[in-house]
Design goal:
Blueprint lengths: L4 E10 L3 H17 L5 E5 L13 E2 L2 H6 L12 E2 L2 E7 L5 E4 L22 E2 L2 H14 L3 E4 L3 E6 L5 E6 L19 E10 L6 H9 L11 E10 L9 E7 L12 E7 L4 E9 L9 H8 L3 H7 L3 E11 L10 E2 L2 E3 L15 H27 L13 H6 L2 H8 L3 H23 L40 H7 L12 E3 L4 H10 L3 H4 L5 E5 L5 E5 L9 H5 L5 E3 L14
Parallel strand pairs: 1-2, 1-11, 2-8, 5-13, 11-18
Antiparallel strand pairs: 3-7, 4-7, 5-6, 9-10, 10-11, 12-15, 12-16, 13-14, 14-15, 17-18, 19-22, 20-21
Amino acid sequence: MTERESMAYDVVIVGAGPSGLCASIRLAQLAQEAGQELTICLVEKGSEVGAHILSGAVIESRALDELIPDWKEKGAPLNTPVIRDELYLLKDEKAATKLPDFAVPKTMHNAPGHTTHGDANYIVSLGNVCRWLAEQAEELGVEIYPGFAAAEIVYNDDGSVAGVATGDMGVDAEGNPKDGMYTPGMNLLGKYTIFAEGCRGHLGKQLYSKFDLAKDADAQHYGIGIKELWDIDPAKHQEGLVLHGAGWPLTGSAKSGTGGGFFMYHTENNQVVVGLIVDLNYKNPWLSPYDEFQTLKHHPVLAQYLEGGKRVSYGARAITKGGFNALPKMHFPGGLITGCNAGTLNFAKIKGTHTAMKTGMLAAEEIFKALGEEAKSLEEGAETTGGKDLTSYADTFKNSWVYEELYTTRNFGPAIHKYGTFIGGAFNFLDQNIFGGKLPVTLRDNHEDYAQMQTVDQATKIDYPKPDGVLSFAKLDSVFLSNTYHEEDQPCHLTLKDNSIPLAVNLPKYAEPAQRFCPAGVYEVVDGEDGQPKFQINGQNCVHCKTCDIKDPSQNITWVVPEGAGGPNYPNM
């Protein structure tokens, strides 16, 4: 194949999510303030900025206030302040208890006067926020390249990170160039590289291994978030209303040990977003997060708003929820790792956007300082720049409000994992509302999520009701609403370390759970031509949620990037 060309920049950023975009903006601001020229390249695997962005989302504006103080005047799409919170415990398919405000952990309040920072939070389409941030970045001279997937890390001879290589385009399923369609990838080289890929970034995963970034951290934990956007009856719509809850259907003897919770946010234009987060440490191999969500929508707390409405979009994404105890080392020779790629989501708030944004800004400030010091060294006769391990970033992060916020909520997730929704929730109320996160104890949870799955002989089979086509829907109908597209004749981006494991190990032990934990119908066990079971991967359905890479009990599935621009195309999620 053709040798790759290279382009050199001062800084390369992987991922046009909130962290990567804010890093690029902050770098450009600092250069502008100093009267310097700085070349910044941001590469994004989605077809456009925002195409792969999926979040609830209720966000705090704290980081945005710091980055772009006049964001309201500039038209940032934060149009729906939260006016009221409601928190429910669902007892069964009909009954629910609404918790009074005083009984809700402070971290979960979103309405003005009740939040930890006093101001209202905002219901947003995070994809649209990222599209707006990209406009701000480009106005400052940042080069943004959507549709180009960062496929490999490029290293210097000394082992430091030199940048990334984008994936080849126009390659068939066997890895051969297609006639007249092949375009080789390009090396994007930077003095420093920021990896802001989001949860379970595939390059971030490699960096964790190569530089042993998680050596001193607790085991990371994950959830899968499944979300739908609905147009609802204007008479039922209450703009600014936020609902959260836990309990049914993630309860009962067959689902013991399954944590998670639902959300419903009344956004603008008579729309609501509704979703369910299922902790990926669940035990029962028969459990299907997708079907749990479809079942959930029939509960009267949610159905009262959805009935008579129309579902307009669907998506899914894993979230990193290990919190403070699972934070890795975020620096390594030649770069930094930020945002959800580093696990900075605050699960106690069910929010990670403001922390991701701030870590991107901190990374930008650290790199700009290093570039200035190296430019000065060059003037004094030094021969090289870049590739340095920015160890001082550890102190920069430790002195930030992100560190303080994550530290005070360090027990939230482990309490739920150890003691369950109700007892764990009571502990968290005590910890957050009474002691302000300063209890002299740190709970730990070092059990890997994938290792918690029971075998089929230990578990009770779960039979889910058929979707009614009104409130609940078939999986492939949902994938259609995600606008997912991949060029079918390309190497499969869902790779198996051992092709025999799905049928030889996972099928007899776990009834091959990939069929159920995937929310997009990617994995199936079908009858082959010889009448024997065949493990089939429908890679074209993949919504890039990364759940398979996380939850496979044999850790046999590795998610890598497909051709650039492949995957979902979320318009307003």
